[in-house]
Amino acid sequence: MATAREDSAAHEADQGAPAADRSAVPPAAGPPAELGPAALRALAHPLRIRILDLLPSHGPLTASKLGEIVGESSGSTSYHLRQLAKHGLVREVEGRGTARERWWERTPGGFSISTVGKDSPASRQTAEAVNMEFLRLRHERVMAFVRAGQGADEETLKKWHGTTTFFSSNKWATPEQMAALVAAWDRFATEYIEPLSGQEEAPGMIPFEVHFDAFPTIDPQGNPL
């Protein structure tokens, strides 16, 4: 019964209002909208998940540049981008590019994928497979960061000391207490993480990633996972 959430940030110029205007109306706390069946089926392809995974940290990319990164032809990545766009998962960057070379970005707002409420075993399996692939890619990024730290010089390590953390905590709680914890995280994300959106072009900015996991460590029968 897993639910995975994917967040994305929009560029300042694409919001239609200055940052000061947007900050006056903070986003509502809570999980993003869940993907519908058609969008979920469209996403059930490893390369499309990889594309969605790359765009937030790399910023807008063309099909050609995406092809270079993932080792595919621009025709292949262009096709998959169009399929993702049909379901509102990516969009063209307005005012940038040409008819031959389009720039694409993640659609702001994020989405969630849950195995709960699916009308068939196949739908649940699709949701589970997509979640697993997103988690696999996330683990790859974590390990890449750890490996990079092994080769970093002392000056770099001191500069970033205190800016990163990997936190784990094992407690006992009721489902209601866990739900309250997740709701508190949603409020925290709205207050502290959402205001960081739209800073891609500011000096000194680098992409970063925040994880928050909360899940039972036993199955419904009480067996360890």
UniProtKB/TrEMBL annotation:
Keyword DNA-binding included in the entry's annotation: yes
Keywords, ordered alphabetically: DNA-binding, Transcription, Transcription regulation
Database matches in Pfam families: HTH_20
Compositionally biased region (Low complexity): 24-33
Amino acid composition bias (Basic and acidic residues), ranges on this chain: 1-14
Chain intervals for the UniProt region annotation (Disordered): 1-33
Transmembrane segments: none
Domain spans labelled HTH arsR-type: 38-151
Descriptive protein name: ArsR/SmtB family transcription factor
